[in-house]
């Protein structure tokens, strides 16, 4: 009788674990960010260079397009990549780095953590915009803001990013900027 009870308990536990795994898989698939195809804007020969590492979503795409529109008529080379491409980036090639990512499982994506944690990366030239449901998640030590990813607020976030990026990209001309 006891052996039968143990079998029932084991089957129930296995069912709960399987259900949990299925829910985790569903959550990952339904909330996964789209991959961003890398592209560049303006000539690589320009003196000022901006890297935008992002994930694909309507909010993030709108924000990135605002930043690109702002700088496309300036002498700023812009390289846009998916955050998964950060390990292949030489941060020394850029004057400013904008990270736009989602908070996943109570932390930034692992590639973002590793990129920021790299002791060679100058944290002062990194700006981060983090999306999270609660809107209060930040990467410690990085200048950034956080909030929900609602497209109607993308312009406000991009305005903030542009203000911060201006201080990085044009720091040698701060006194001459209007």
UniProtKB/TrEMBL annotation:
<keyword id="KW-1133">Transmembrane helix</keyword>
<keyword id="KW-0472">Membrane</keyword>
<protein>
    <recommendedName>
        <fullName>ThuA-like domain-containing protein</fullName>
    </recommendedName>
</protein>
<keyword id="KW-0812">Transmembrane</keyword>
<feature type="transmembrane region" description="Helical">
    <location>
        <begin position="9"/>
        <end position="27"/>
    </location>
</feature>
């Amino acid at each position: 009788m006891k052996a039968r009870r143990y079998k029932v308990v084991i089957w129930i536990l296995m069912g709960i674990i399987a259900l949990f795994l299925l829910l985790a898989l569903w959550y990952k698939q339904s909330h996964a960010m789209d991959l961003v195809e890398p592209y560049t804007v303006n000539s690589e020969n320009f003196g000022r260079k901006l890297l935008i590492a992002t994930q694909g979503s309507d909010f993030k795409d709108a924000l990135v397009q605002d930043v690109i529109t702002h700088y496309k008529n300036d002498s700023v080379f812009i390289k846009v990549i998916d955050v998964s491409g950060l390990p292949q980036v030489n941060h020394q090639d850029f004057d400013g780095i904008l990270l736009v990512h989602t908070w996943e499982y109570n932390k930034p994506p692992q590639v973002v953590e590793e990129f920021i944690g790299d002791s060679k990366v100058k944290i002062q030239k990194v700006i981060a915009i983090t999306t999270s449901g609660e809107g209060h998640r930040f990467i410690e030590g990085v200048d950034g803001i956080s909030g929900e990813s609602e497209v109607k607020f993308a312009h406000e976030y991009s305005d903030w990013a542009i203000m911060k990026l201006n201080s990085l990209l044009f720091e040698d001309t701060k006194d001459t900027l209007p």
